[in-house]
Amino acid sequence: MNYKYLLYEKEDHIVTITINRPEVRNCINHETNLELQHAWKAFRDDDDAFVAVFTGAGDKAFSAGWDLNDAAALTEMGGYDKFRVDCHNVEGYCGYTKKFDIYKPIIAAVNGYAFAAGLESCLLADIRIASDRAQFGATERRWNIVAGDGLCVRLPIVVGYARAMELIITGKRIDAMEAYRIGLANEVVPHDQLMDRTMELARSICELPQGSIRVDKETVVRGVGRTVEERTFIETEGIYSMIIRSGSHNEGAQAFLDKRKPDFDEHGV
User: What CATH code would you report for 6-206?
Assistant: First the structure.
């Protein structure tokens, strides 16, 4: 796919989405936002795409946030009343950040600054691998800009209430090791090994049966904020839809007993 501000590449079931505005530290403007929405839906709906890798071009930034040229021109983009209405209806202002319907694995390769909307964007991922040069922060706090793309929703889920509130309230920057310590980053690797490690992990996930991964991710996502009992019902729905209807659990169990590799279809269902 050809985009103006993104690179979209697919190889061996892995889609790599790269924000390609290194000259402005991969800030997300309106056009980039629309392209991200299209790209994420393309990945979501592509049966041949198993895992997404999300990163930024260059070696300075994953994304330094919302392009403040757009923020400053907000009144020229339809005004505040339209903005208020749009906030309840759009898929995100900095990508696909207001949606929760991608049940395939997403890995963020955080290669530098992940600030403000960049932090919100990397929170879309299930797993974040950080370069040892990466930095994270809700830096929009300095400019009196509220978190509008899921920061206040996703960050407490990832790092817990207290850590999330500390970052949200203070707007401070943290380095990769501090992000790892609080659970924001899953791994920290040397900068020059970031993409190799990320692709290694993506390939290992592609080798697994995909059906159960997607059902279990959906169970986790749909269960957030619900009662324990409701969560068990959602999990049971997943068991029924994936295992009972597909019959894949029979093949998996029998393969284990036969000491052979399961004979699933290409998508692992």
Answer: 3.90.226.10
